[in-house]
Each structure stands twice: as C-alpha cells, then as structure tokens.
C-alpha cells in the first residue's frame, strides 16, 4: 500500500524532514521548462522576500502535465517528497548571503519537492482553506 502523505501548509514545509511525503496547496509563480521545475508560493502575487517557496520538480510527470498546471497564477494541489536542495551551489550561496543581509526578517528558504502528483485546485477561498486545515491539524494532535 502506498505511503500516506502529510498535509501541511506551504509556510511549514521547511520544518518537514527530507524524504517525507507531503501534500500542500500553492500558487504557480514560474515554470522553468529547461529544468522542469515549478516555483510555488502561498500567495499571488508574492513580492515579500520572506514568502514561503517550494521549488517543485515535475520531471517525472511531464508526459501527463497539462498547460493549466504550469500556468502562472494557477493554484495547485501537490503531493511529493521533500528532497535535498534542487538549487545549484551558486544559487544556494547567493541565497545564504541574502539571508545574512536581512537577518532580522523571518526567512523561509526555498524547499525542494519531487512531485509524484499534481492537479489544479480550481477557485480557492484561501482563508477558508487555511482555517479548515488548521482545524484538521488541531483535531489530529495527540492528547498531551
């Protein structure tokens, strides 16, 4: 039987261990057809430097992806695995330098995800989605 995915908010995936199977909702900000990677964020447009970001590899899904999935502004459901950084060393070093320059701001480094399934989320009421997700996560917490 396939491993179940863990439903998380995009702003919390940086807290999840590498190798964990997750499911999250996000908005496409860019698609690089040379690397088959989507840049997904939790709001659109996202102009703040600290916007949580996932770099999602869709290379294994290329034969089944429709244009609606790679369209900028599309809201997507993503299931996949947290992977070590997809960024090359020069991008990672530049990112670390930027973090040092603005150390007082909350910073979320881009998290790498290898997608195993993606589908359009359609019209989203983000506030209702977030409230429902928080309620679900609260209900699933073990009693302490």
By CATH reckoning, the class would read Mainly Beta
What global shape is seen? globular
CATH architecture label: Beta Barrel
Total DSSP helices: 3
Q: How many strands appear in the DSSP assignment?
A: 6
Strand order of the largest sheet: 2-3-4-6-5
Question: CATH-wise, what's the superfamily?
Answer: Nucleic acid-binding proteins
Q: And the CATH topology?
A: OB fold (Dihydrolipoamide Acetyltransferase, E2P)
Low-confidence stretches: 89-106
Biggest beta sheet attributes = 5 strands, mixed, barrel
- Give me the strand/helix succession: EEEEHEHEH
> Helix content range of the residues, please?
10-25%
User: What proportion strand?
Assistant: 25-35%
Query: Taking Cα atoms only, what radius of gyration do you get, to the nearest Å?
Result: 15 Å
Q: Helix/strand/pairing class, anyone?
A: alpha/beta
Head-to-tail CA distance between termini: 30 Å
- What is the count of distinct domains? 1
Mean pLDDT: 83
Pfam families: Ten1
GO biological process, one term: telomere capping
Protein name: CST complex subunit Ten1
GO molecular function, one term: single-stranded telomeric DNA binding
Tag the structure with descriptive keywords:
5-stranded mixed β-barrel, alpha/beta, 6 strands, single chain, 3 helices, 144 residues, OB fold (Dihydrolipoamide Acetyltransferase, E2P), 22% helix
